[in-house]
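Here is a protein:
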Amino acid sequence: MHLSVISFEISFCEAKLQNCCVTASIDAIRALSLRAELTIRSNLSISSPVCPEKSCAINAHPQYSPIDAPRTCEHGRRGDNGQVNPTFRGRYALGAFILVFGLISAWAALTLSTEGYYLLKDGTQPSCNINPFFSCGNVMQSEAARAFFGVPNYFWGLIGWGVVSATGAGMLAGATYARWYWRAFAVGMFVAWFFLMWLFFSAVYDIGFLCLYCMVTWATQSIMLWIVLPWLLREKLLFDSEKLSRIGAAILPFAWLLPVANIAGIGLAIIAQFPLLVPMLVNGY
């Protein structure tokens, strides 16, 4: 075994290395490193006749070249993960904002799902059946309340606002998200807002009754959408564009006007469609 190893060492040094003391190529270093590891394991110490003063065997821990190290993506993931503005201004404020409004919306969806269950189970009337205008039970039993695949809308709300709440909680805990996630988040918020506005029109103009907990989600979703969207644009979490970033920065200080206008439009439509609602509420009915 010793002769075969020495023979290998001689042929290797003569063919690949003219002088063992000269810097070897990367491939030779890798071969020597692997050879050294085998030498250590077999407790061999080999000296080459070609290089009697310095052994070509390395009796030390193998030193791997950078080629052996795992390669990382040159450009990295484009997102809020260390590549694009990972410590943007107001990170924790935005996380707290998303978490609070997500939890409020999730609470409304959970209340609706609980009271909807008891309404179907034993006919228990929901707590928001207040007067002839506010009647969650009539809204729950309408076709619009099961718009997708026959699944009650509040179940979708539990899923969606659960994701929103988890996103805000993750930001407070220091989590970062890729740009594709923020894009999906923004699209999801817009789709949810559009769907809730459709439910608003259905409740006011088709069903003829109002759902108090549904109105809570109309308000919270409108506030989240119009506040979070310019924030994401300003911090380049949606697009790597200076122009859109400047637009978001210009809108953000006045972004509160957008949900105010949205909610005011909802309120005016309700008052116009139910003119007796305000006097009834003022008189305590």
